Amino acid sequence: MEPIIEIHNLQHRYKAHLALTGISFTVHRQSIHGFVGPNGAGKTTALKILATLLKPQTGSVSVFGQDIARSQREVRRKIGFMPDHFSMYRQMTVFEYLDFFGAAYGLAQAARDKTISDVLTLTDMDGRKDDMISGLSRGMQQRVSLARVLVHDPDLLLLDEPASGLDPRARIELMEILEELRRLGKTIFISSHILSELATLCDHVTIMDRGAVKYTGTMRGLISDDTSETATYVLTLTAEHPASIDALSKLPGMTAVSSPLPTVPRYTLVFDRQKLPVNTILQTALATGAQITGFEAETKQLNQAFMDLTEPGVRT
Amino acid sequence: MISPLLALFNRSLRQDVRAKSTYWARAGLVGLMLVMMFTTHLSLGWSGAPGLAFFASATSANFFFIGLAGLSYFASAITEEKEEMTLGLLRMTNLNPLSILLGKSTSRLFGALLLLATQIPFTLLAVSFGGISIRQILAVYLALAAFIIFLSNLALLFSVMSARTAGAALKTGTVLFLFFVGPVLIPGIQWVLHEYSLIAASQPAPALASALAAWTRMSPLSRFAEVLSTGFTGELIGLQFWSNLALGLACFLIAWSVFELFCRDQKDAVPRRGFIFKRTSKLRLFAAGRPWRWALIWKDFNFVNGGLTAVIAKLLAYAFTGLAIVYIVDLNNTKWTWSGFGFTLMLCSALAGAIELAIISGRIFRQERRWKTLSSLATLPLTMRSIAYQKVAAALLAWLPVVIYFFIGLACATPEIVRSLQKWWEWKQKVGLDRALRVAIEWQAIGGMTFGFLLVIFGIHLVVMFSLRFKWGALPMAIAAVYAGSMFAVPLAFYMMGQAAFVGLITALVIGTGILHVRIGARLEELAAED
């Protein structure tokens, strides 16, 4: 996959405080890349550097292959940055607001008319274009903010906490819009504290803590832990089947088979990935007459992975 | 245990004690007094009463700073909480309106009074210069203290009644202006009405005349004139002291009684659109229209500076003022000339232009800072310099009416200006003025005008810089800084450089403006990243 953002050994210091301690990661084209970390982890600093609001102090940052420090204006044309607060000209109407930003990006009037119409349709705001922004609800203002980010048709969206302060419906609708944007070919780099939503939305994730990258890679890699020698799978049967469980326990490489849950005949199997292929387990269970309704690798929740990778307490 | 009534008051005092700015302000004011003493010392040889001259300068400076504080420091006491949407939180605590007023305003009053008290040991040295007594000095300080109490509570009242600091400052300024000019304005209005045969009497009735005389005596300016006259032996405390104290108390009590009425509902702070109509409105002639090629100029011209509506309103207002001037000149039976009208128009538009420019420069970036919109602008494919210059261009566009009137005035006055220059030329030919002296006079005149112009440019930069550093009071602070700086730099330059003083002053201003210019750009980038 083509890298869109490449960060290498990036450090940033605010006087005595080292906000980024030399981070490196890559964001690929047309991916939704989650950016997660506790407060004070350095996420906003990294995002501001990517948005060209802060200059990189040491290390290199390139966006679309262009050095961010040298090609600021070119990079700005290709990115759309949505900060974590509602920084809007609320005395304007929705149309005036989008029209202004379109013109500021140098779009001709006809092009602006078409783009504004498209982004308003995408964000489901076309019926409110002549409304004052100050009169809109928070969710709607967030949609307008997203429409503003899209008005110059950037290839990369940098979103800092886009769902913060939104009610559940507005949050779900925002996530649907982001999915749609990925389908339209956009690359989305999104910082958020709402881990459950990131887990379903993102295909890649970077976890930060205390100014350092703790994990960067695919979401699946983070939660399924494919690289470990020991595998954990969950087997669900239609009914309890002691003979089958006994046969599975005796397989070479099987480390543990849990007792069934009180209400569901579900067993957790822990085994050595090298010694015991998954096929053998399935074949053994079927051969002993068990009726299988489910067999899948146990995945950690993103919450758990996040807790494992980050340290407790507040950064000092 | 501190009672809830004094909790906020106590906290504010403690904060002031810990803040470095408190000590900087005191040191600055004392430093200014020392500069004045230095200039007095220089004039010892030719001034009859140097102590009196020094103390009169110190009193003027104090009066000036108190006035500025009234329009910023005191006027923002309650409005800053409203603008930050924190007044509701304060009201949810155990604090009642009285404790909020004491905590937010009276603590500031204490700070200002302490600032005044700090100077007394230094200004008492004026006695040693001669021409003034300790009694006069103490009488002036008491008058100043009473005036601070009045002004702080007047500003507090408008701070309670207004939604924003700018509104509170405007109302305080207007009432203060009327307080000072009232005794002159009322007879003036009566005379104008009499001239138009609308009323019979041309002079105030005896009762009104004595009321106006008492009003005049309530003014601290009258009190200063009385106390600083040679051989003053009057009371240490006069009518001005008691009346100002009573007015201050009355303002405080009114502020307390109307607090609930004006501060009950917390309104969402939203930037104002002014008279820019929507494109769907029937008055769409006054809508913002579509953005121009320079979109930021369009945005600021319409949504910061009021757009076409504001330009038309200003054109009409200045035209009305021009006509009023013509009428007043006519009423005075003075010989009316186009050049006289031109000079008056130039003077008025220059004054209005300076005021307008000062206000515009205070809010040119403050709006973006307040509504945290700078980061959105900073990610546009433009440099911060380009963003700043587009905003300045929009401000200048809104400033156009005053420029138009200035040039109309200039066009009217041009024949007279040309005639004056011709006269000067003929006179120096006729008298056979020494070349060196002629050049010195001409260069001093050019130097003075250049210095004045550059001082305005420097002042504007300072207002912008302060507006990017402080939440409120950028304009009064910049005026105070320019005033204090001029008090210090101008005598020093003349003392050290003599005839070449303007060269030094102009160089310093150019360098200072250049540094501010660069620092404003850097500060804007910092703020965009902080948003």
Layout: helices, strands, pairs:
The complex is a heterodimer of chains A (316) and B (531).
Chain A lengths: L2 E12 L2 E12 L3 E5 L6 H8 L7 E6 L2 E2 L4 H7 E4 L11 H11 L4 H14 L15 H13 L5 E5 L7 H16 L3 E5 L3 H7 L2 E6 L2 E7 H6 L5 E8 L4 H8 L4 E4 L8 E7 L5 H10 L4 E6 L4 H8 L7
Chain B lengths: L3 H15 L1 H23 L7 H25 L4 H5 L3 H6 L4 H27 L2 H4 L4 H28 L3 H31 L10 H13 L1 H8 L11 H25 L31 H9 L3 H25 L6 H26 L2 H5 L3 H5 L5 H15 L1 H32 L3 H35 L4 H24 L3 H30 L1
Helix pairs in contact in B: 1-6, 2-3, 2-6, 2-21, 3-6, 3-8, 3-21, 6-8, 8-9, 8-11, 8-12, 9-10, 13-18, 14-15, 14-19, 15-19, 15-20, 20-21, 20-22, 21-22
In short:
With 316 residues, chain A is an alpha/beta fold. Chain A is built from 11 helices and 14 strands. In chain A, a hairpin with an 8-residue loop joins strand 12 and strand 13.
Report on the structure:
The complex is a heterodimer of chains A (316) and B (531). By secondary structure, chain A is an alpha/beta fold. Chain A contains eleven helices and 14 strands. Chain A has helices at residues 43-50, 72-78, 94-104, 109-122, 138-150, 168-183, 195-201, 219-224, 242-249, 278-287, 302-309, and strands at 3-14, 17-28, 32-36, 58-63, 66-67, 79-82, 156-160, 187-191, 204-209, 212-218, 230-237, 254-257, 266-272, 292-297. In chain A, strand 4 (58-63) and strand 5 (66-67) form a beta hairpin. In chain A, helix 3 (94-104) packs across helix 4 (109-122) and helix 9 packs antiparallel against helix 10. Chain A is elongated. In chain B, helix 8 packs antiparallel against helix 11 (220-227) and helix 14 (307-331) packs antiparallel against helix 15 (338-363). Chain B is mostly helical and 531 residues long.
